[in-house]
Amino acid sequence: MESAQKFFKTIRDVPTEDYFAPGHRLCAGCGPSLAMKLAMKAIRMPTLVVNATGCVEVSTSLFPYVSWRLPWVHVAFENAAAVASGISEAFKILEKKGRGKKHDVIAIAGDGGTFDIGLQALSGALERNHKMLYICYDNEAYMNTGIQRSGATPTGAATTTSPAGKVIPGKQERKKDLIGIVVAHRIPYAATASISHPLDFINKVRKALEIDGATFIHVLTPCTLGWRYPSSQTIKIARLAVETRYFPIIEVENGRVRINIKVARPRPLEEFLEAQGRFRHLFEPENKHILEILKQQVEENWNRLLKLGEIGLYA
Amino acid sequence: MSEIDVDKIIKGEFSWKTLPPAAMVKVPTSLEYKTGVWRIEKPIIDQSKCTKCLLCWIYCPDMAVKRIDGGSVEIDYEFCKGCGICAEVCPAKAIKMVEE
Amino acid sequence: MSRLKQVRKIALTGDEAVAYAAKQADVDVIAAYPITPQTIIVERLSRYVADGELNAAFIQAESEHSAISICLGAALTGARTFTSTASQGLALMHEILHVASSMRAPIVMAIANRALNSPLNIHCDHSDVMNARDTGWAHLFANNVQQAYDLTLMAFKIAEDPELLLPVSVNLDGFILTHSVEPLEVLSDEDVQGYIPHIPYPYRIDFDRPLAYGVMALPDTYMEFRRQLHEVITKTPQVFRKASESFSKISGRLYNLTAPYFVEDAEIIVVGLGSTVETLRYVARKFRGRNAKVGVVGLTMYRPFPEEEVAKTLADAKCVAVMDRAYSYGGVGGPLYTDILSTLYKNGIRTMIADFVYGLGGRDFKLTDAEELFNKLVKSVEVGRFDQDIYWWGVRE
Q1: Are B49 and B6 contained in the same domain?
Q2: What is the pLDDT of residue A1?
Q3: Owning domain of residue A40
Q4: In this structure, are B43 and B85 located in the same domain?
């Protein structure tokens, strides 16, 4: 992995303290919960979290039980980036005026609160380049409300609002290129990550926090219930997503692309898909064309990233 | 004022006057909720096989694998939900999931 | 030192006066989205910041929803926050207005009252703030530019009072006040700083004392939190009075929850909000000159509704006319009328009462209109009743 400096070289170097506490209500084997734990391992100074409505928010703040060990703010679904902007600027001016102490601000939202309803607030925050890290934990659907499709749901996936029906077999539309959208705002740092590669993710979080500007990490977090697989498989599926090139692990630093995990010999996409119930219908003969479309998307995306890596500039 | 008695609240022994204003809770409080009761299976670590790689520790979504003296790990059964990730990721196959 | 030396009399528009007040209040964070007729407020403030006259973070948000969200986040750090909007912008903020009050964020917002779509209309009426009646914000109404300035300063004092910690809006009529130049007395910077010093927000975000804000509450606890909010809001009048008293010491102007005018022996009382109150007062004075027993009461604080004061003022009136610059579609009548009606009934007061829906979309309510209104009221009292409950004033039938 050729990411820049490593703050934590091995797993042993990762701090034992947890700013994300046990006792939360997320499912057994929940991908997002692991992402929260890992992200919280990387904090470096007074930090707070702004959380959008979603699986994580609801399951970690069910009054009176709260499973965070730092200040945690929830306002609404679509404005995590806006609330974080306000907090970031407020601390900055307060410190300047001698009435406060700067805190690192981490906005955390799911794909629902980022790709779709949260996109406007995110765009505004990125354009204004406030000092904040935005982490989007992506389980590829609105899981908290019952597995409805989102702009992050991939082609072919079955969700409750894009079911694998007789006439329309799953979601027909493509997954948004969120990193592309984010990088188009020309922020200093954006990256993708997977919970299967914890050191990479933790280091990226820390790297982002050290940057004085808007930073963004898109982390893939499989959902045992929504993706339909046994809870013990979460890490394996997250790893397959990377190893099949389905979810490339990259960094974009000041517009320059770096592929962190160069998957030289990708595993067949089928291995990733057949491990999940939400893609089961793609293995029916009548849906074979969708499977091919998905494979083509993955291949084109990878090649595109390779080329961007050569050119150097994503945006 | 933001300190709360979780126990009393769960029992319903509170009034609008005794709850924290705007529900601002002094964190953390979830440690009072023992998610271990969710389990159907539990992980058992065979310490003799453990290579102290700490993969189970890093991958546990519930912070239910604890690092202990000597470099190894142990399960915090108060919070372990029995998801089976630790058993799955262990390269030495030192963790078995057994029925609760 | 003589007080006279410390105040200055200048001429400003309502928008400029509000911006000037916010500047003197040394706000820390301003997040706003431009919308006519509030734009001057935002532009002035950004100029103050750009020129170094105001040490604040000026953020032009990408929408009003984000503007109020930014303010909410900022308020939780203990920063003094200010925003401003109107009409559709306020409507877009709506979801977060409820959250701001229930999260106890002392935000101050100036609303340049403007009609809601559709049709699109950029001129004055109160439909925007009326839509926000139930959001748990305190709503203050200015009758003129002086009041716009004064109430903005008072709003910070009220909002940030440790007993309250609630968001407050200052309403000024779009264009009529926002863009009209009027003379006003402004206080000295020192006086303002002395009046509203920065005090620590008791629940400020602090890593060393970590709190969770905006948690989820199930049916077993949610209602208690709402009961709490209700309780806090009932403290607003006393906090207002405290803020008003200390304000009068530095300004010589004392504000009450309501502004009664010639009501002591009035048979006919007209109730209103905003700049129209001045029009009504002017004409009421004329009618008093002809020995007609008329009076006017303007509400300075509309929410929480000053029920006690209103009931007392209207108790002996033979006839009440309510001026509504908004309507509650599908309701019993206009919003102010509905509040007055409930107040009267609750307090056992039965009197002739009618709702006058006027000035929607900026339709002018001139002195001649006020004269016609008072004449009509006098006539109706003679007859003993109104021929309608709800009058749509000046509408072409």
Answers
A1: no
A2: 38
A3: 11-311
A4: yes
How close does chain A come to C61, measured CA to CA in Å?
A: 7
Measured between beta carbons, which residues in chain B are less than 8 angstroms from residue A16? 67
- Are B18 and B54 contained in the same domain? no
Best interface-test mutation with A: which of B1, B38, B59 has the largest number of A CBs within 10 A?
Answer: B59
Q: What's the domain count of chain B?
A: 2
CB C85 within 8 A of CB C32: yes
- Give a yes or no: residue A4 inside a domain: no
* Structural domain count, chain A: 1
- The owner of tokens 């399951």 is A59
3-state secondary structure A151-188: CCCCCCCCECCECECCCCECCCCCCCCHHHHHHCCCCC
Task: Report the complex ipTM.
Answer: 0.96
> Do residues B16 and B39 share a domain?
no
Look at B24 and C203 and tell me if their CB atoms are within 8 Å.
yes
CATH of the domain at A182: 3.40.50.970
SS3 of residue A56 by DSSP? helix
At C373, the amino acid letter reads L
pLDDT in tens, A167-223: 999 999 999 999 999 999 999 999 999 999 999 999 999 999 999 999 999 999 999
pLDDT at A4 over 70: no
Sequence-ordered list of residues with C-beta below 8 angstroms from that of A225, at least 6 positions apart, any chain: A27, A143, A147
Examine residue C119 and say whether the peptide bond preceding it is cis (omega within 30 degrees of 0): yes
Q: Does residue B50 share a domain with residue B60?
A: yes
Other beta carbons within 10 Å of A237: 22
pLDDT of residue A313: 80
Beta partners for residue A250, in sequence order: A259
Residue-number span of the structural domain to which B25 is assigned: 1-33
Residues B50, B20: one domain? Answer: no
Interchain contact C102–B (C-beta under 8 A): yes
CATH of the domain at B100: 3.30.70.20
Any domain includes A210: yes
User: Does A51 reside within a domain?
Assistant: yes
- Inform me whether the C-beta atom of residue B33 falls under 8 Å from chain C C-beta atoms: no
Contacts of A232 in chain B (CB under 8 A): 83-85, 87-88, 97
* pLDDT, position C1: 42
Do C151 and C139 contact (CB within 8 A), yes or no? no
**CATH numbers and ranges of domains, chain C:** 3-251 (3.40.50.970), 258-392 (3.40.50.920)
Give domain status of residue A284, yes or no: yes
Confidence band for A2, pLDDT divided at 50, 70 and 90 = very low
Question: How far apart (Å, rounded) are the C-alpha atoms in residues C298 and C263?
Answer: 11
Q: Which residues contact A69 (CB under 8 A, 6 or more apart)?
A: A18, A19, A20, A21, A40, B27, B28, C210
- Give the whole-angstrom CA distance, residue A20 versus residue A57: 12
Residues of C within 8 A of A56 (CB-CB) are: none
- Nearest CB to C224; choose among B15, B24, B25: B15
Show Cβ contacts of residue C290 under 8 Å, excluding neighbours closer than 6 positions. Answer: none
Q: From the first residue on, what is the mean pLDDT of each consecutive set of 10 residues in chain C (397 residues)?
A: 66 98 98 98 98 98 98 98 98 98 98 97 98 98 98 98 98 98 97 97 97 98 98 98 97 98 97 98 98 97 98 97 98 98 97 98 98 98 96 97
The arithmetic mean of pLDDT across residues A154-161, rounded, is 97
Q: What tokens appear for B23 in the block?
A: 């529900």
* A93 pLDDT more than 70: yes
Q: What is the pLDDT of residues B57-80, one digit of tens each?
A: 999 999 999 999 999 999 999 999
Predicted confidence (pLDDT) per residue in A103-118, tens digit = 999 999 999 999 999 9
